Amino acid sequence: MIRFDQVSFSYPHGETTIKDLSFHIYKGDFVALIGANGAGKSTISRLCNGLLRPASGHIYLDGEDTCEVPTSRLARKVGFLFQNPDRQICENTVRDEIAFSMKVQGWPADKIKERVAEALETFSLKGEWFPFSRSRGERQRIALAGVLACEPKLLILDEPTTGLDYMECIHIMDYLTGLNRDKGITVLMVSHDMELVQDYAKRVLVLGSGTLLGDGPVNEIMKDEELLHRARVLPAQIPSLALRFGDRFADVYTIEEMYAAVKQG
Amino acid sequence: MITVKNVTFRYKGNEETALNEISLTVVNHDFVGIIGTSGAGKSTLAMALNGVIPHEFAGDFYGEVLIDDEDTVDHAAEYFGRKVGEVFQDIDSQMVASVVEDEILFGLENFGIPHEEIGIRLEKVLRELGIEDLRHREIASLSGGQKQKVAIAAILALEPEILVLDEPTGELDPESSQEIFGLLKKLNEEKGITVVIVEQKIKLLCEYVKHLVVLDRGKLQFDGVPREVITHIDTFKRLGINVPPVAELSAMFRADGSYAGDVTLTVEEAEKMVREVLHDSV
Amino acid sequence: MNLLNYVPGDSFLHRLNPITKLAAAFLYGIACILCGNIGMEAAFIVLMIVISASAGLAGRALRLTRNLVILGLFMFVLQLFFVRTGAPLVVVKGFVLITTGGLRSALLLSLRVVATMLPLMILFAITPMNDLCNALVKRAHLPYRYAFIITTAFRFVPLFSTEFHEIQDAQRARGVDFETKNLIRKVQLVAPLCVPLLVSSLEKVNSSAISAQMRGFELRNRTSGYKEYPFHAGDAVVFATLAGMIAVSAVLL
């Protein structure tokens, strides 16, 4: 789906720098990008859709080198949900807001109408609402509905938990898991919340100072405390608890698994 | 000490009340955490504790907030600014200066602290927060965690009795968040400063605060020590607030009768509990 | 990147009283306006670059000069065709296009623009906004309220610009193509961004005002400022030198 090949990047003032980064995210994967602030998570997510451009190296999207492709065209394949929905929302009704991306991407009018109706239904939104006076959670849903209406192949989530209630976040994540399973949409999620990563991601990329410290299945990474420590990430509670018992709870990652394992003795 | 009595507040132009009949006491040397979903009234409550509400926001205010028996309505907003210092949510917009030193000087100068004392306080607060090396730095060049410390320093220099913070770790990563909480704990224990913190991160609240307040749509749901409040796991889930996974685990063992101890709040406590259930020697 | 932000340093220029710096920038400008000699005007520009270099700001001064030269060129072209005095210099099909007077006046004006603006721009590099305002409050008795408005305005410029870029990124991420060459189309695209920008700006201004208020803004008076801004021998030297410069310029008028 998306492949980074020896990508380097640095900001003009030289803060976060990505050094010779290579990785490949396959179609249908659900990947979490973790690491401390300043490790380069946001930079990588913005390189994926061309908001930032690599200083050297190449990024391939569906096999096509993205270096020469404008962001506006990449946006048709890569959906991006920002932490703060207020930077996205600029239309006066929820209906127009959801239609906005499809319009600028040149979708036919009848198709737009159909997709908007579907999106309103899926996300329990009303087309005539004035988006600016809705709650933060609703605004985030409006933004997501607009992004997903365009049927992106790759969806990037930038810190989905910030500013969202736990339940709202769980609803959104459950819905995305369904899309990932049924429609094969690829998800790349940037998050600090290891519980969320544990519950939803299939694969984890661990970042530290612009380099890849680790890359593997979520269960493997969540139990590599040395690696998480090196990346300055606080481990999820249950895997961390399981580790304190050596090999005894080697297969335990969730609350339910822990409970069942302890009950068996 | 702050006493909140039956406070109801409705922002001008809104139909719903942001705070609804809230009563609450913050005693001296307390460390209070306020949690709730977005729109629950957390920020509004934080601002009501020192008179920012109702003085700076138009709306209907009922009930009373007493700071050491003085009613916030009877005095201008800045009257309590020194006693109950507040670090607001938007870290960038609350800074008034471009250099760290000037930011800390601002309040000291305004409140007419004698000039011979200002220098002493400035150095003391920089030392206490461990940011001596940032003294002459441009605020725009600092990291999120450093900015947060500067904002706290600027308030702390005024030597408040109570420090109110509105989501100080919202933009920080877990490591810096824990650092800020550690700092607040130190101020609370060593200097006796009362801390009131609005926060979404339940794991940190459980680990650090002495007193947890849960709000839901302007109403007070729970008010007590975290270990007791957190036992209401079903209510928390219904309100849309998560609880630490280890607390949920302990609730399951408590429910089936295999564990009789308190709800566990940290991984260490959970380890003890699991060993107890397994009849392991600890 | 930003050509107007403060560059920390400990040079002779940095250590001057902020009021001296402000006055010096204006007096230098007056000298440049009075001066009617093209060579002298060019010398003023070079001198300013040399002075900036002494404060470690050679790069900044050169970049500023380059930008000001672009502005100067614009003035040069206008002046070249509008001033009709002197002997004809370029004649096209019997129509006098450029005169010697036009050329001389255009050259002088464009150099003057660069020479006058440069010291004012350098002022920002060697003076923190806070110091300038505090000194004006203490020494020149400027009401604090106005000083605060000036510093706040300066502080908000980068905040707004960051916010604007992030809003623009959010729009680009959903397919808006800002790279169009069509100016009208571009305005159409940027206009909707004003809504989110305005919403967030109002919030920021409001929260800034409350924070200042709670930290006793209303109680402040002229003597509140902790830092003193005394004048030193260096300041006197600067004033004397500038007085000399103005005199020389006036003579060469």
Task: Give the arrangement of secondary structure elements.
The complex is a heterotrimer of chains A (about 260), B (about 280) and C (about 250).
Chain A: E1 2-10, E2 17-25, E3 30-34, H1 41-48, E4 56-61, E5 64-65, H2 71-74, E6 78-81, H3 94-104, H4 109-122, H5 136-149, E7 154-158, H6 166-182, E8 186-190, H7 194-200, E9 203-208, E10 211-217, H8 218-222, H9 225-230, H10 237-243, H11 255-264
Parallel strand pairs in A: 3-8, 3-9, 6-7, 7-8
Antiparallel strand pairs in A: 1-2, 1-4, 4-5, 9-10
Helix pairs in contact in A: 3-4, 3-5, 4-5
Chain B: E1 2-11, E2 19-26, E3 31-36, H1 42-48, H2 52-55, E4 59-67, E5 70-71, E6 84-87, H3 91-94, H4 100-110, H5 115-128, H6 144-156, E7 162-166, H7 174-191, E8 194-198, H8 202-208, E9 211-216, E10 219-224, H9 226-229, H10 233-239, H11 245-255, H12 267-277
Parallel strand pairs in B: 3-8, 3-9, 6-7, 7-8
Antiparallel strand pairs in B: 1-2, 1-4, 4-5, 9-10
Chain C: H1 12-15, H2 18-34, H3 38-54, H4 58-82, E1 88-92, E2 95-99, H5 100-126, H6 129-139, H7 144-173, H8 183-190, H9 194-214, H10 233-251
Helix pairs in contact in C: 2-5, 2-10, 3-4, 3-5, 4-5, 6-7, 7-9
Features:
heterotrimer, B: 282 residues, alpha/beta, Rossmann fold, 6-stranded mixed beta sheet, 4-stranded antiparallel beta sheet, 12 helices, 39% helix, C: 253 residues, mainly alpha, 2 domains, two-stranded antiparallel sheet, 2 strands, 71% helix, flat
Work out the helicity level of chain C.
over 70%
Give the strand content of chain C: under 5%
Order of helices and strands of chain B: EEEHHEEEHHHHEHEHEEHHHH
Question: Oligomeric state of the chains?
Answer: heterotrimer
SSE string of chain C, helix = H, strand = E? HHHHEEHHHHHH
Second CATH tier, the architecture of the largest domain in chain B: 3-Layer(aba) Sandwich
Distance between the termini of chain C: 38 Å
In order across it, which strands form the biggest sheet of chain C?
Answer: 1-2
How many domains of chain C? The number is 2
Main sheet strand line-up of chain B:
6-7-8-3-9-10
Number of domains of chain B: 2
> Roughly what fraction of the amino acids of chain B lie in strands?
15-25%
Poorly predicted spans of chain C: none
Rg calculated over all Cα atoms of chain C: 23 Å
CATH superfamily of the largest domain in chain B: P-loop containing nucleotide triphosphate hydrolases
